[in-house]
Design goal:
Elements lengths: L10 H17 L4 H23 L13 H8 L3 H10 L25 H18 L15 H19 L26 H12 L3 H19 L6 H13 L6 H36 L2 H15 L3 H9 L5 H83 L3 E6 L12 E5 L2 E5 L9 E5 L2 E3 L5 H6 L2 H8 L3 E8 L5 H5 L12 H15 L4 E13 L2 E4 L7 E2 L5 E2 L6 E3 L2 H14 L2 E2 L7 E2 L2 E12 L5 E10 L6 H4 L3 H25 L11 H11 L3 E8 L6 H15 L10 E2 L1 H21 L3 H7 L3 H12 L15 H10 E2 L4 H18 L13 H8 L2 H14 L4 H10 L2 H10 L45 H5 L28 H16 L1
Parallel strand pairs: 1-5, 1-16, 6-15, 6-16, 10-18
Antiparallel strand pairs: 2-3, 3-4, 7-8, 7-11, 7-14, 8-9, 12-13, 14-15, 15-17
This protein binds adenosine-5'-triphosphate.
Length: 988
């Protein structure tokens, strides 16, 4: 419904305005032509409708577009009219008199039968009148009659018929005629023509006008109904006033004109109104969506029409852009509304999805928590498993240590670039390595080796060293340790032991790290034990031992063969000292370029670290020694393309390495004879391989395919090495009491010497080769001069002496201890029975002798006293002659708790010649109540070849007859002076 505000005019008032404005002008309209045209159109319409209703045959007498005359003639019989009426309103004319002949053929002037004429037309007019339709006079069908009246009647009937066909609902809008067939109908006579005119206008096909008029009337009706009839009477009066003085025929045209004006006015006002609405809509669009929609719906309510109608109204202005915009806005609003409802749906979907997600997340979190717990338990189990593995490994190593096995760690060098990424290593697993072998080496093309540990190509220097650390601790605990690197040339031995050329803290090798650790631990223990550390560095080059710690030129350590004690032994206080020394040693080392390695070591190098510790509280001393050996690499001379000097070097290297192989093989088979003396290298390593040292071998392998032959033989050799049992290592410790006892012995010796009455230095200088003599004399009786090989050695006596011709390896602390112990034995052997214990009155030089080369002096003294040719019998004899008080003294000291070096066993080997094998723990002199105290040898013991069971040393008869001087460890200067001494001795 359009309110006054929105549609701010009523149809009635508008019509009134138009009528008032235009009423006067209507009179001026020239209606003549229009009247004729109008009459013709109406007639044609009436004729056409009649023909159509009655059919072409029934209406054959009436042309489609008849003239006025033709129209009159066609209808004058009344037959067409009656039949049409009956079609529209069946039974309206009860009886239609048909003409005996075709009415057209009857001439106009021929008189129709009165019956025909009267009956049909009269019946028609009566029926029409009863229907309330406009009628005409029967005479209007006669010549000179008023045909337009007939036309009006027909068109009214048509109008009625249309209304009826449209359903006949409500009022017949043109006449208020009730659609009752025959009842009296009230017809407003005054409006009759007006209505007919309207009907006519409608039937003229002016559809748009008709529709507009209908709508106007509809709206008009609404206006009237709405009570805007305050001026309806004036509107009525106005119309009546306008039409009153008009001829009846002119009225339709006047009304029509008026209506046209009304229409124009109405359209103008409506357009203005729509513009106003559009403005409102634009405002709404600029407002929020919700307000917009609210406003839109309020407008819809007010207008009383759905948006489609509004759209339709707007579409009337299609040609204007504004109309389009309006359409768009409305559409957008609808779209917005639709979107809003969709958004609502989406929101609820999102809410549901969110709830689902929360649930899923909760579940997920729960699962993650469960997994976490599970994982934790797994990790716990895994760490437990790892711990067990680690424990197993430790236990295994402990068992190995107890058995004295040589530990073997395998290290694989990274592939060379030229190898194209093809490695012979299949996989590495803790202590196992599997290599891919050519078919000839194994059925499967795979071969596995087991070692204490295997390091892959990516293992860092730190990782490699970490498993070596416990050994370093052992050195400080008084053990002898040997770490040596073995492997084919170029397999990474020097890299492991020293590091690459460009040394950094990360790339430092075992040597540096070991020394660094040594100092670190000694620093940590300094409140309990004070340590002295000294270093030697030698190399074996072409079967010659050379001192590497010399600043001028590398020199052989001996004029004849090599005597290692002559090598510089340099005290060191800090890692930096060691680094400097090692750098010097490395510089002096024989290195050459081969086809296999740019920086190939052409010698075996050995860095020896001596550690002496003294327990601050108890005074107990310990001696540890560590050999760090970087062997020269084995090489196939054809591969290394060695010629000349290099070839000679290679031959020496290979020879010494094969000698090492022989030694290992003998040890593995527990042969009684081990061929140590076959090379300088095996002599050097004799302590470590045959003694009680803790020995570790780093076996290196090159992963390239062309090295597979060497790799397999290297790994096989390493496996054999790992099977060698050396016996459990023992710490070299001696108590303060033992030390004291030794001092007493020294005093005794000094006293003895004094008693002999000969100045020792004279005897000493009189010796043609004192060192050799000493070595020879002591070799048979004591291992004291064999420094690090100290406690145990095998091989025949002759061999030992021969070994000494060429090599004397600097004694370590353990051997010093042994020597001291054996000095006691010497004393026992050589002291005359009358020698008083603890002879008083030592002179200053005697005291000096005690603290210095007392062993040499004593030995020389003994030798010169003519006892060097002692036989076993005479030695026993002499031993027995020792006063009981001496043994009492020893036993009352009750403190001769010695380590391995004090416990010795002389035994006969399988060889024809008598071997002396010094073994640990055979005899222990202890203060335990039932312990075996040092006793005077019984005659039985003396005779028995099982002298080894006695704590008494081997017979002096084994000693060389000539005098000898055994050298104690000396530091740099001492070594040089000793060397000079030796030289002068030899020249004599
Ligand atoms: N673990 C490693 N990581 C990186 N490079 C390595 C490793 N091992 C060895 N190399 C490199 O391989 C080359 C040969 O190594 P190295 O000189 O140590 O071999 P070698 O066994 O001592 O040889 P030779 O017996 O001929 O003296 C060197 O350039 C070295 O830096």
């Amino acid at each position: 419904m359009v309110t006054e505000e929105l549609l701010n005019f009523s149809v009635a008032s508008m019509v009134e305005d138009v009528l008032q404005q235009n009423g006067k002008r209507l009179n001026d309209i020239d209606l003549a032509s229009r009247k004729a045209q109008e009459a013709s159109l109406r007639r044609n319409e009436a004729a056409g409708w009649l023909r159509k209703t009655i059919g072409v045959v029934g209406g054959k007498d009436l042309p489609a577009q008849p003239s006025e005359e033709e129209f009159r003639l066609g209808l004058r019989s009344g037959i067409i009219l009656c039949n049409v009426l009956n079609k529209v309103q069946p039974g309206a004319v009860q009886k239609v008199v048909e003409m005996p002949c075709d009415s057209v053929t009857i001439p106009d002037d021929a008189a129709l039968s009165a019956y025909q004429y009267f009956e049909n037309v009269r019946n028609f007019l009566v029926a029409v009148e009863e229907m309330g339709l406009p009628t005409f006079e029967a005479s209007d069908l006669e010549q000179g009659g008023k045909a337009p009246r007939v036309v009006n009647c027909v068109l009214a009937l048509k109008s009625y018929s249309d209304w009826k066909q449209g359903g006949g609902n409500g009022l017949w809008k043109f006449g208020n005629v009730k659609a009752t067939p025959f009842g009296k109908q009230f017809v407003l006579k005054n409006s009759e023509l007006f209505m007919n005119s309207v009907s006519r206008t409608s039937s003229m096909g002016e559809k748009s006008l008709d529709r507009s008029l209908s709508e106007q009337i509809s709206y008009g009706d609404l206006g009237l109904e709405n009570g805007n009839m305050g001026n309806s009477s004036s509107f009525y009066m106005l119309v009546r006033g306008l039409l009153l003085d008009k001829k009846q025929e002119d009225i339709p045209i006047i009304v029509e004109n008026m209506l046209s004006k009304v229409m124009v006015e109405f359209e103008q006002r409506l357009a203005a109104q729509i513009d106003q609405i559009k403005g409102s809509l634009k405002d709404m669009a600029s407002l929020g969506t919700n307000e917009c929609l609210t406003k839109q719906s309020s407008i819809e309510i007010e207008i009383g029409a759905p948006p489609e109608i509004l759209n339709e109204e707007c579409s009337n202005n299609k040609d204007t852009n504004e109309g389009k915009t309006n359409n768009q806005i409305v559409r957008q609003l609808m779209l917005l509304e639709k979107q809003q409802s969709e958004i609502k749906v989406l929101k609820s979907t999102i809410q549901a999805t969110k709830a689902d997600l929360n649930f899923l997340q909760m579940k997920h979190n729960e699962e993650v928590r469960n997994l976490g717990t599970h994982l934790q338990s797994l990790a716990h189990a895994a760490s437990g498993y790892k711990k067990v593995l680690e424990e197993n490994r430790k236990l295994y190593n402990q068992v190995q240590d107890l058995k004295g096995n040589i530990r073997v760690y395998c290290r694989v060098r990274p592939l060379r670039r030229q190898a194209n990424g093809l490695s012979t290593v299949d996989h590495i697993d803790e202590g196992n390595i599997t290599i891919i072998t050519p078919l000839k080496y194994g059925k499967e093309g795979r071969k596995s080796f087991t070692f204490n540990k295997v390091f892959g190509p990516s293992a860092s220097q730190g990782e490699v060293f970490s498993d070596t650390q416990p050994l370093i601790r052992s050195v400080l605990d008084g053990y002898n340790v040997c770490i040596f690197a073995y492997g084919q040339t170029g397999s990474g031995k020097t890299h492991t032991m020293i590091g690459p050329n460009d040394l950094t803290e990360e790339t430092m090798g075992v040597n540096y790290r070991a020394l660094s650790d040594l100092f670190m631990i000694s620093e940590q223990r300094k409140d309990i034990i004070s340590y002295d550390v000294s270093v030697q560095m030698i190399e074996i080059y072409n079967e010659q031992v050379r001192d590497l710690l010399v600043t001028d030129e590398i020199r052989n350590c001996s004029h004849k063969g090599l005597i290692v004690p002559d090598a510089n032994i340099v005290p060191v206080k800090a890692t930096s000292d060691v680094i400097n020394l090692m750098n010097l040693g490395q510089k002096n080392r024989a290195v050459g370029s081969t086809a296999m390695n740019d920086r190939s070591s052409r010698s075996h190098s050995c860095l020896t670290v001596h550690v002496q510790g003294k327990d601050v509280a108890s005074g107990t001393t310990l001696h540890g020694c560590m050999h760090l050996v970087d062997l020269a690499g084995s090489e196939r001379v054809n591969k290394s393309e060695a010629v000349g000097e290099r070839l000679k070097e290679a031959q020496h290297i290979n020879k010494s390495l094969s000698a090492l192989g022989d030694v290992i093989s003998s040890l593995a088979h527990k042969n009684s004879h081990v061929p140590y003396r076959n090379s300088k290298l095996t002599q050097l390593l004799q302590d470590s391989l045959g003694g009680q040292a803790k020995t570790l071998m780093f076996v290196h392998m090159s992963p390239e395919h062309d090295a597979i032959g060497e790799t397999i033989s290297t790994l096989k050799f390493a496996e054999r090495v790992s099977s060698v049992e050396l016996g459990a290592a023992q710490a070299n410790k001696e108590s303060a009491d033992v030390k004291e006892l030794k001092e007493q012995i020294a005093i005794l010796k000094a006293a003895l010497a004094r008693k002999e009455g000969e100045p020792m230095h004279l005897q000493c200088s009189g010796s043609s080769s004192p060192e050799r003599s000493r070595l020879r004399s002591s070799a048979g009786s004591s291992p004291s001069c064999y420094s690090s090989r100290g406690a145990s050695f095998s091989g025949d006596h002759k061999q030992r002496i021969d070994d000494l011709d060429s090599l004397e390896i600097r004694n370590n602390s353990a051997s010093k201890q042994k020597r001291q112990s054996l000095d006691l034995q010497d004393l026992l052997m050589n002291s005359p029975p009358w020698t008083p214990v603890g002879s008083p009155g030592l002179k200053d030089e005697e005291k000096e002798a005690v603290s210095g080369d007392w062993v040499d002096k004593v030995m020389v003294n003994k030798q010169d006293s003519g006892r060097s040719d002692n036989t076993l019998g005479s030695w026993e004899e002499e031993s027995r002659q020792l006063p009981d008080t001496f043994y009492q003294k020893l036993n009352t000291r009750n403190q001769i708790v010695t380590d391995d070096s004090d416990e010795l066993e002389a035994t006969t080997g399988d060889s024809s010649e008598q071997d002396f094998l010094w073994k640990p723990n055979v005899h222990k002199v202890s203060n335990s109540s039932n312990g075996s105290n040092l006793k005077k040898p019984s005659p039985k013991q003396a005779k028995s070849p099982d002298i080894s069971r006695s704590s008494i040393p081997p017979p002096p008869s084994r000693r060389p007859s000539n005098g000898s001087i055994s050298l104690l460890p000396k530091t740099g200067k001492q070594a040089v002076s000793s060397d000079a001494k030796r030289k002068s001795g030899s020249s004599k």
